[in-house]
Design goal:
By secondary structure, the chain is mainly α. Among the domains are: about 50 residues; about 55 residues, no CATH class. The chain is about 60% helix and about 5% strand. The protein is built from 3 helices and 2 strands; from the N terminus they run ααββα. Strands 1-2 form a two-stranded antiparallel sheet. The longest helix is centred in the first third of the chain and has 55 residues.
């Protein structure tokens, strides 16, 4: 009988240890999730500070921030392009009044009721007089970055 009592006390002790370890893991996981949540809040606050700075200092921006603002402009242009691609795939346009998506053949916006301009006249493609160069990065440099790099590469080859 003593053997069974000893064995059951060891099993009970082992199970209590396992339960305590499991509780510790759960508690640590919860705390790590809280840390991640607080870090996300800090990042959001930093983002708000940066946006406020950009909005408040228009035209008077410290040159140290210029590369970051250019990256933001490139990212915004890419987002606009991606949204246009999504609208093309969906067969929708954007309401010029409220920005809501409307079907290509809609006459009025289903969100604000504004009349949607007839796209038939806009669909006639006009050939540009001179095709604008682009470096492909979407920065609007007019190909200056690519041409200067390309010129350097070409001169090195020669």
């Amino acid at each position: 009988m003593e053997l069974f009592d000893d064995l059951s006390s060891k099993i009970l002790s082992g199970s209590k240890t396992a339960v305590n370890k499991a509780k510790e893991v759960v508690d640590i996981t919860k705390l790590k999730a809280e840390i991640i949540s607080e870090e996300s809040k800090i990042k959001a606050i930093y983002t708000e500070i940066g946006k406020l700075y950009c909005d408040k200092t228009e035209g008077e921006i410290d040159p140290a921030f210029q590369p970051f603002l250019e990256k933001v402009a490139v990212a915004k242009a890419a987002i606009a392009d991606y949204k246009a691609q999504i609208q093309k795939i969906r067969g929708t346009n954007q309401c010029s009044e409220c920005g809501a998506e409307v079907a290509e053949n809609a006459q009025f916006c289903s969100s604000c009721g504004a009349p949607v301009p007839d796209k038939a006249a806009d669909d006639v493609e006009k050939e540009p007089l001179e095709q604008e160069k682009s470096c492909g990065c979407g920065c609007g440099c007019g190909g200056e970055q690519e041409s200067s790099e390309g010129t350097t590469a070409q001169s090195e080859e020669n």
